[in-house]
Structure to design on (190 residues):
């Protein structure tokens, strides 16, 4: 398995549907938010109108973006189709041609639902680190692939009042209906 070392490669490797098991630890008396969900990731080309919109929200020339991704979340047991209007759109603006670090524009943040600009970089080991300064919070997320179909995310949030939040997610790629049908046919042919 070759880990992605650029954000656009990370988006491409992440494209698809993921089953997420999430453990959340609050350092105050907030209710437990641990659980299971589905994560839908789609790669956006540089010409996608959502890329342009996010850049313009942040006052950035869309020509500097090389692409992006749409992230949608849904409770695991929810049977309705995911709502594309509730997707977060992320846009990649690498620092240089290597693409190993840069800015990540978001139409809405994970912690505060406002447009935000994060800094990202990839370590030699393939671990992606994203630092985000919100209006009232600071966040850091780290993500890495264990295999092509299993990845891990860990994040910390520090709030202005000193309360911390830590999250650990393990994510397993879901098999598409088409791939599942091919697997069944292969098995029946044996």
């Amino acid at each position: 398995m070759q880990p992605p070392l650029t954000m656009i490669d990370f988006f491409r490797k992440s494209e698809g549907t993921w089953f997420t098991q999430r453990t959340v630890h609050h350092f105050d008396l907030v209710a437990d938010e641990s659980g299971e969900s589905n994560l839908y990731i789609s790669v956006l080309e540089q010409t996608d109108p959502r890329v342009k919109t996010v850049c313009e929200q942040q006052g950035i020339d869309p020509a500097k973006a090389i692409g992006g991704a749409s992230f949608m979340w849904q409770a695991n047991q929810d049977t309705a189709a995911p709502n594309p209007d509730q997707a977060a759109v992320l846009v990649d603006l690498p620092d240089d041609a290597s693409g190993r670090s840069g800015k990540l524009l978001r139409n809405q943040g994970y912690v505060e639902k406002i447009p935000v600009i994060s800094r990202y970089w990839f370590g030699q080991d393939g671990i992606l680190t994203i630092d985000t300064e919100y209006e009232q919070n600071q966040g850091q997320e780290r993500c890495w692939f264990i295999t092509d179909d299993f990845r891990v995310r860990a994040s910390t949030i520090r709030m202005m009042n000193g309360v911390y939040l830590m999250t650990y997610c393990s994510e397993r790629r879901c098999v598409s209906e088409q791939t599942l049908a091919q697997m069944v046919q292969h098995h029946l042919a044996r």
